[in-house]
Each structure stands twice: as structure tokens, then as C-alpha cells.
Amino acid sequence: MSQPEGYIEAGQEQKVCKLNKAIYGLKQAARAWHLKIGESLIKYGFEQSKADPCLFKFANNGNPMYIIVYVDDLLIAGKYEDIRKIIKELEEEYELKNLGEVNYYLGINIERTKEGNFALNQKNKIEEIVEKFNLKEAKPTNIPMDPNYLKQEGEDDILPNNTQYRKAVGALLYIATVSRPDIAVAVNILSRRNEKPRERDWNAVKRIIRYLKTTAELKLIINTDKEPILTAFCDADWANDKSDRKSTSGSVFKLGNCTIQ
């Protein structure tokens, strides 16, 4: 790495420093940190999920505890006593900032209802998107996409620059994946047009944003059923997209009464 300011000696300006370990900002730093925190959690008895390496589980006499690791943001779920214990153990090894009971995580508002359920909402993130694409004064709409969108042939001009389009679709994909499955189909359709979007595609993207603005208060409820049942549904159309005659398949997974994917 380059020499830090204030440490450069005259005549030694071309010299660089050799790093003995990863530091913040290096391309390999995130991986190095994830391996380090993973080693610590496994040392404390946690088991790393094979399906998602960011999820760790600890089985404690029928009282499981879970930790989600997103870089240096950790979310812990379990019994209060178990949570306090693991926090104390981690504090002996790392400098921690305990934010208490979760109410916001990775752009997600998390609310605990009086029934003990969790309500997920991304109102703050939606407001950021609305402001970013200058749609604060846009008209509301109650559906995310025109039902006849795929049946309509579009021959209008291709956008001269697809940067804004791709940014908007990327932001909407995150919203759809986390808490708003009601926009998933519309976002999926429009994400296929990232390379050469037309004016009508851009208007359709803005319509989804207007729909989110109209329905920003909607919440995804996660029930606390003792023995939730995993249910899956799937379906597909047949060459429904007239622009390329490609088919669309889809699936919905529910854990108890909660849509999880």
C-alpha cells in the first residue's frame, strides 16, 4: 500500500508498505473478516449453514439461537439469556456496539407486534428510491404493472442511456426480494430489458416506483407458529412475452402463513 501521509521521508517517496494483514478497504478484506468471525462463532459452538454461509445456528437444549452475519452487522435471534451470553463472549474478542432489540436492519424496518409476530417494512428504502428518481409528486397507482403490458408491441425509441434504468431495476429487485413479493413479477419482466430498454419500459419501471410510493405502509408479516409448514407453489406461462416469445416460470414459498420467497 502507499505510504501514509506524514511518514514519507525525502528520497523514499517511491517506496510502498507491505501489509501483514487485511485492512478495511481491501478487496479481500470482507472475505478475511467473514472467515475470522466465522471461526469465532464456530469456536463458541455455532454451526455454519451450508445453504447460506452468512447464517449460523447454535442448538441449546431445544432452544436454538441464530446469527445472521452481513459484513460487520450481526443480527441475533434466540432466548434473552443465550443472546446475552454470546454477546459477552464476542465482546471479549471484538469491540462491539450493542444496538439493543432490532428495529432496522439492512434497509428493513422490523416491528414486533403485540401478538409476537414480526412485521417487515421497507418504507424508508422506498422513500429513498422515490426521491432518487424524482417521483415525489408523481400520481399514485394501485397496481404495479399494466396487465396487458406483455401483450402490447413496443416499437418506441430505445433509451440512449440505460444507466438510470439499470439502477432503478436493481433497487426494485432488492425491495421485491426482501419484503414486497407483490412487485416480483413486474420487476422480473422489466429486468429482462436491462440491455436495451425502451421508453415504455422506463415508464413501466417508474410505475412500479409510484405503486410502492402508494403502498409504502404495507408490511410482510412473519408469524411465530410453533410448527410452521413449508408450502411451495409453482406455475409457468407459454411464450407470453411477445417481444422474444420467452416463457416465464414462477414459484412462491410459504412458511406457515408467511411468504418467504
From TrEMBL:
Residues spanning the signal sequence: none
Domain Reverse transcriptase Ty1/copia-type positions: 1-145
InterPro entries: DNA/RNA_pol_sf, RVT_2
Domain of life: Eukaryota
GO BP annotations listed: DNA biosynthetic process
UniProt cross-references to SUPFAM superfamilies, sorted A to Z: DNA/RNA polymerases
PANTHER family: GAG-POL-RELATED RETROTRANSPOSON (PTHR11439), PEPTIDE SYNTHASE GLIP-LIKE, PUTATIVE (AFU_ORTHOLOGUE AFUA_3G12920)-RELATED (PTHR11439:SF483)
Name listed for the protein in its UniProt record: Retrovirus-related Pol polyprotein from transposon RE2
Organism for this UniProt entry: Araneus ventricosus (Orbweaver spider)
Lineage: Eukaryota, Metazoa, Ecdysozoa, Arthropoda, Chelicerata
